[in-house]
Amino acid sequence: MQVIRWGILGLGKIANKFASDLLLVEHTKLTAVASTNLDRAQSFALCYGADKFYGSYNELFEDTTVDIIYIASLHPQHASLSIKSLLNGKAVLCEKPLAMNAIQVEEMIAISKEKNIFLMEALWTRFNPAFCQAKKWIDEGSLGSIHYISATFSFNGLHKDEDSRLFNPIKGGGTLLDIGIYPIFLAYYLLGIPKDIKASAHLTSKGVDKQLAIILTYDHAHAILYSSFTHNEDMRATIAGENGEIYIDDRWHESPTLNLVQSKVKTPKSFKFLGLGYSYEIMEANQCLREGIIESSKWSHQNSLELIKIIDSIRKIVGISYPSNI
Fold this sequence. Notes:
2 domains
């Protein structure tokens, strides 16, 4: 089987988690890593066994031994770095959000199609076995028509200063793009594009959201969604239909455990993930490259575009502001 050769760009916390899972996936090799800090790149390469390390992103883009680049930079850099990768003939798995807004996502998709090179947003929840099981139950009709979804994502980040990536608008701060995207993804993926959006936020003095509540309205359903940097909580998800409910346990976006309830009869299901769970998006990207296709059928270009359009609408409603140049 073809070995897929990976590069990683942006070597922060999420990249470390991703790299640890990459090592667990068969027929996969971490070939090169890049940071704007050469010492950090060298340390990362030594930690995860990468063959090469670079102190600039351009060197990684130009490395002909790399098939695909995982982009784990700050949100505002996602579009430009993905585009540079595609223009250099490299496939891209880019951390969520795929870009800051729909205009950027449309440009990325256009270049992916023009160059006939794979591009996918790294929404890892979509690919983990527990989420796939929930989707299977729904597709089998276990819930009947879905009428209600509830999901939250919160943690206490108030100890971080205004220059942190959580709160600095220049770094794409705020809950919406960082963690609010997960509950929105859940509602969008299961119910589609809403007919109406209501949202309310508590904004910081810099104009980004530290706390956000959303109601998405569909023809026969509602989704109640919430994200916050102001407190910790159990992060569970509920998907309720006329014939049953699915409850996904704490930290639902990465939970290996969920329950189907029908007429008060509980059917539990639990999975042992390979690594932390990033392995499944890696395997999906690998398979797409081996098949020579430019997007995943499980999370397509259109999915990413529709999701960011919903996010754009929410940002406009609550008045979240980012500098025009990002």
